[in-house]
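User: Please predict the structure of the protein below. I'd like the answer in structure-token form so I can feed it into my own downstream comparison script.

Assistant: Understood. Taking the following sequence of 358 residues as input:
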Amino acid sequence: MYTHTTALSLLLGLASLLAAGPVLSNGLATTPVTTQGGAGAAVSLNAVVEAVRQTTLSAQVPGAIVTLRVKAGDTVKAGQELLRIDARAAQQNVAGSAAQVEAAQASLNVAATEYERQQQLFAKNYISQGALDRAQAQYRAAQAQVNALQAQTRAAQTQSGFFVLNAPYAGVVSEVPVTLGDMAMPGRPLITLHDPSALRVTAAVPQTLLNDLGQSPQGVRFEIPGLPTLNGPQAATQVQLLPTVDAATHTAQLRVSLPDNLRGIVPGMFARVWLPAAQPGVGTPQPSLWVPASALVRRGEMTGVYVLDDKGTARLRQVRLGAPSGTQVEVLSGVSAGEPVATDAQAAARATTPAAAR
């Protein structure tokens, strides 16, 4: 029996179909690519995670590596011994310098005694002034010899400390490109160390965006894809725009400080920075394009949507995505405003043939 309840159910079903978009003969529901004003437009830049403090340790003296106490991934404390180079020759130099100091000290004692004796004889007028002057000169020469050898010994002791590499600060060992027995040479990288407590994201900003960005960037966001502790783009709290532009790339470095409580971040990770700037060559920001998240197709490293042509055929088109917002995702390139896209990517994939995809 046809009742008001039945009529209401039919109306609700029809309204849901209309909300999803036009339904084609092949059963695919579509929706047009929508736009959202121009005030919230943003420019996406590829970036990289860097450590504020990252050090590559190398030796100041040559020698074979005899002790290697760390490996990549180890956490070290400030002053901890990391690597030791064969220092037997340096130790022998220190011992030889110490022996020379002892010999010079003995000569100084003899010269001091002789000078004191000559002073007593001169007081009794037994020797001339010239004899006293010669004794004084010998004493001063012996004293200078002792000072010179002591300085040489301290230099040898200091050089012997170059054969041990210690951690300059507490951090994590990033890379150890050497093994036991390798020859360490001055300037050769031995250990790379970074401080995980201070990280940042660095992006190269084209010079066409510098005027719109300003010297005190506001509204900058950053994103590290795949990081479970971050859900989408995050507002940057500390932003630094370096005042120099690279002559080769014509870009300036933008540094975004990361919070201290983030986990799972290491230097070298891919990141993305969003700038609330006008598009190049346009005075005001352009409207951004948005599609439903259900319309996205991900195949390996390719991301696309099914776009319907004039004949109603769904064709796969690669797109470049921006920031997500709820159930919608911003599209930076690949589609135009108003183009119909399939809201159910899986249904569109089943309904199309490989020859229809592009």
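That's the full token string. Helices lie at 4-20, 88-123, 129-160, 210-213, 345-351.
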